[in-house]
Amino acid sequence: MKVTAVFFSPTCNTEKYVTEMVQATGEMPVVINVTSRDSEERVFGPDELVVFGAPVHGGLIPEIAARRFSKFKGTRTPAVIVASYGNRHYDDALVQMQDILSAQGFLPQGAAAVIGRHTFGEIQTDRPNAADLEEARDFMKRLLASERKEEALALPGNRPYLAKGVKGRFRPQTKKELCVGCGMCVRDCPVGAIAEDCATISEECISCFRCIRHCPMKGKFADSDLYKQVAAMMTEKLAVPRPNEFYL
């Protein structure tokens, strides 16, 4: 069985879970990372397995992730849905991904709503941890041992979606004394929101904070008064860890 991992993962939480799952199959997976760029269109066969992963932003996956997933078509191809979120809730993200993939010819066989470090504040900073990843591997093994599902998978969520999603509420700032102009943030921004000067950030920003987490010089940060208020509130409110949820 050919196994493929497809993920949109600005801060690598989703990537970690999806990687564990595809490795648990025992196959050598094909890995397609659509975080920073589109993929070529691909069509998958009925005897393949594709694991799709994306983060949850405001109860839905980001629009850019949904658009990049649209490049992939299935022919009644088994698929797995992975939605990672920062300990608040995944809201309608699972059913949204189910709708996207089903419309493109995939047959979702299972789904996971899993916890990773929140983009804002200091929320669940140690997740995914070893126990989380072990749960992900066990889920995949149970899925592979189950019978193929031809009917729609029952998942929590609302249709029509009640969640509204979010765009860029907070734009990262640049410490000019630390920035060396390497251009990593420009190249890696999922939506191309960072100008060539490495400091100017457009309204296309989705506040994924990929540039903050990945800058080798620690030259990106978020420090507005509103951001600090929101981050402090969420850090306190979301201190109690939620469990991962798996659906077969």
Automatic annotation (TrEMBL):
PROSITE patterns reported in the protein's UniProt record: 4FE4S_FER_1, 4FE4S_FER_2, FLAVODOXIN_LIKE
Domain 4Fe-4S ferredoxin-type: 170-199
Tagged with keyword DNA damage: no
Record keywords, A-Z: 4Fe-4S, Flavoprotein, FMN, Iron, Iron-sulfur, Metal-binding
Domain of life: Bacteria
A GO term, aspect molecular function: 4 iron, 4 sulfur cluster binding
InterPro entries given in the database record: 4Fe4S_Fe-S-bd, 4Fe4S_Fe_S_CS, Flavodoxin/NO_synth, Flavoprotein-like_sf, PSI_iron-sulfur_center
Entry annotated with the keyword Flavoprotein: yes
Segments forming domain Flavodoxin-like: 3-144
Official protein name in the record: 4Fe-4S ferredoxin
Source organism of the structure: Parasutterella muris
Taxonomy of the source species: Bacteria, Pseudomonadati, Pseudomonadota, Betaproteobacteria, Burkholderiales
